[in-house]
From TrEMBL:
<keyword id="KW-0732">Signal</keyword>
<protein>
    <submittedName>
        <fullName>Alpha/beta hydrolase</fullName>
    </submittedName>
</protein>
<dbReference type="InterPro" id="IPR054579">
    <property type="entry name" value="GCE-like_dom"/>
</dbReference>
<keyword id="KW-0719">Serine esterase</keyword>
<keyword id="KW-0378">Hydrolase</keyword>
<feature type="domain" description="4-O-methyl-glucuronoyl methylesterase-like">
    <location>
        <begin position="91"/>
        <end position="325"/>
    </location>
</feature>
<dbReference type="GO" id="GO:0016787">
    <property type="term" value="F:hydrolase activity"/>
</dbReference>
<dbReference type="Pfam" id="PF22244">
    <property type="entry name" value="GCE_fung"/>
</dbReference>
<dbReference type="InterPro" id="IPR029058">
    <property type="entry name" value="AB_hydrolase_fold"/>
</dbReference>
């Protein structure tokens, strides 16, 4: 297999830690993929604690359809996830919108909302382009969103609240590979998938996990771990998301860990100013999702996210898709703004604008899903 030009001196996605070359999808699935998943758990995002003694209860707390809800075009369900461990309770809610009149189960998008209520308002008093439910429903898809703050706070508080409160023993004795907030958020996304598997109106085989910025990192990591997600969508995920760490032209590991150390495990701090010593890079995160669908987007004025590094990561992940006999990225040439790449199982667009996710982005995601999902 011809490998793409290695412009940033990154480690090969198809070379195992012991030097074994991956020449087919079976070697990838049995050897390379498991060791890469372990590397990302141990060295970057952190691993979940043992949850074998956790009880999970998922229930529909409210279900209604009326003219006040998207003019009667959708059923709105509020779902509660309750986790109990050793007498400690933690819960969060998410809201699902499902098109009315669906003849068969519909595909769905799950949005990781790292913003406030205005960008995920279940009453739809605030019509946000960040989460355009009306557009998604009109295109025949169901959708759900959860707010990251309800699962794990987006500030450094010592992992004592939200999901982490279930594990008080980790507060004083926290391993260097223990979970960060991104891993907690991805755990929550998988609980929505648990619900979808019981919801007869949703086709759980056709679900996309979507996020912007830190939410985009979560969408990629969540889909890498949970193979039930058919598609991962990341908007402006940047450093420690879809952009290569080596040769970064914007944010670097030192920058992100100075501001947001709690997103990651402690081990990640070893690579501050030492990106070249990473045993992996972010193209391998994308490779973990193969042969499932990936769609990423970047913005012309979002230099901090390193759009060149974001696209190069896609190029370097493409060989994994080829192992499965499918087309990954349709071209290794970075597209001009407003010229989306829809053909391969890795889609992408580059849009004129700033660090954001808007209705143009969503229409591209939906267009891509129409073709592939």
């Amino acid at each position: 297999m011809k490998m793409p030009e290695n412009k940033r001196n990154i480690p090969s996605v198809l070379t195992c830690l012991d030097g074994t070359e991956v020449t087919d999808w079976e070697i990838w699935m049995t050897k390379r993929r498991p060791e890469l998943l372990e590397l990302f758990q141990k060295e970057e995002y952190g691993r979940l604690p043992d949850v074998s003694d956790m009880e999970l209860h998922i229930r529909v707390a409210d279900s209604r359809q009326s003219e006040e809800i998207l003019q009667g075009r959708a059923v709105r369900k509020t779902v509660e996830v309750l986790a109990v461990r050793k007498g400690i309770h933690f819960s969060f809610c998410f809201v699902v919108f499902i098109p009315t009149g669906a003849i068969k189960p519909v595909p769905a998008f799950v949005t990781v909302c790292n913003r406030g209520i205005k960008d995920s308002d279940p009453a739809r008093h605030f019509l946000s382009p960040f989460y355009p439910v009306e557009t998604i429903i009109s295109r025949g898809y169901a959708c759900a969103a959860f707010r990251t703050q309800e699962v794990s706070p987006d500030y450094e508080e010592g992992f004592t609240t939200g999901f982490s409160r279930l594990f008080p023993e980790y507060v004083t004795d926290r391993p260097d590979d223990a979970w960060g907030a991104i891993t907690a958020w991805s755990w929550a996304a998988s609980r929505i998938m648990d619900y979808f598997e019981t919801e007869p109106l949703i086709d759980e085989r056709r679900v996309a996990l979507v996020g912007h910025s830190r939410g985009g990192k979560t969408a990629l990591w969540g889909a890498a771990q949970d193979e039930r997600f058919a598609m991962a969508v990341s908007s402006c995920a940047g450093n420690s998301g879809d952009a290569l760490s080596r040769g970064a032209k914007g944010e670097k590991i030192k920058d992100i860990l100075t501001r947001f150390p709690y997103w990651f495990c402690k081990n990640y701090q070893k690579y501050i100013d030492k990106e070249e010593t990473l045993p992996f890079d972010q193209h391998m995160l994308l490779g973990l999702i193969a042969p499932r669908l990936i769609y990423t987007s970047s913005k012309t004025f979002d230099k901090w996210a390193d759009p060149e590094g974001q696209f190069e990561s896609l190029v370097q992940a493409d060989p994994v898709y080829r192992l499965f006999g499918v087309e990954g990225l349709e071209t290794s040439k970075k597209p001009l703004p407003e010229q989306p790449l829809y053909q391969g199982r890795i889609g992408h667009h580059y849009k004129t604008g700033n660090h954001d996710m808007d209705e143009y982005d969503w229409n591209c995601y939906l267009n891509y899903a129409d073709i592939h999902l």
